[in-house]
Amino acid sequence: MRAVDLTGVQMRGVELVDVEISGELQNVIVNGVDIAPLVKGELNRRMPERAKMRPDDSDGFREAWAILERLWKDTVARAMTFPAGALHLNVDDEWSFIQTLRHLNFASAAWVGRMVLGNSSPWHPLDLPWDEAPGWDGIPWDRDARPSLEEVLTVRRERQRMVRHLLESLTDDQLAIKVTRSEPGWPAMENFPLKECLRIVLNEEWQHRLYAERDLDRLQKPG
Question: What architecture does CATH give domain 50-220?
Answer without folding.
Answer: Up-down Bundle (1.20)
